[in-house]
Amino acid sequence: METNSQDLMDGMNSKPNRRLNWVDLIVVLGGVVCIYLILALGTFWLMDIWPYERLLMYLNAFMTQLSFVLLIYLLKKVRRWQWPDFGWRRVSLKRIFPKVLVLYALTMFINICYAIALYNYGFTPPETDVYSKLLGQVTWYSLILNLLLAGVLAPIVEETLFRGVIFGSLQAYFGKWTAAALSAGIFSALHFQAYGFFPRFVLGIVLVYLYDKYKSLYPSVALHAVNNILATLIAARLMIE
């Protein structure tokens, strides 16, 4: 218990991560947008000449995460940051995981209410939605790919970029909650899914809350992973039925 308590205090009392100046922040945000646009346009172009649509979508998803990793690596090298500067500081996940689960339950409740409201207005996700296509025709290997992508890669990479870098830098200029709203809005908007904007925005706010409270990315990565893994398993189950 002493070690766990010390780990938690190390995370809470450690110095804040470094901030990007305006020029660097605009470059990073521009890089994120360019990654999405270039890969999206490339995927649409390949769809016209190659019939394997789902494979192209998986390729797009993995290339997006790989490009984010490259962006983070370049930032680390150019600015000579260390991983704690991005927010990777030790905390006791054993102590905070119950709170992660409570916050997950809260976001799930909001998602369910939102889905019910959309259903009552006669709205259903379009069949052309990329997430519906990736989760369609479930096989054991597609489920593994989805869990690897959504449950492992996305939480680690996206939390480092959107919470550690983008929110951490915006907070220096706009204050905590304005920066939280801006970073959550960017995080949700870049998924290019209109009907899913609100629940992802709420998730982004909750992830910022965890990151800011514990001064570490580990809690937000844990919540992001739990959310994505359970959503993938639930969607796969519904598809099978």
UniProtKB/TrEMBL annotation:
Keywords attached to this entry: Hydrolase, Membrane, Protease, Transmembrane, Transmembrane helix
BP term (GO), one: CAAX-box protein maturation
InterPro entries: CAAX_protease (IPR052710), Rce1/LyrA-like_dom (IPR003675)
Transmembrane segments: 21-45, 57-75, 96-118, 138-157, 218-240
All residue ranges annotated as the CAAX prenyl protease 2/Lysostaphin resistance protein A-like domain in the record: 142-230
GO molecular function, one term: endopeptidase activity
Protein name according to UniProt: Putative metal-dependent membrane protease
Species of provenance: Desulfosporosinus orientis (strain ATCC 19365 / DSM 765 / NCIMB 8382 / VKM B-1628 / Singapore I) (Desulfotomaculum orientis)
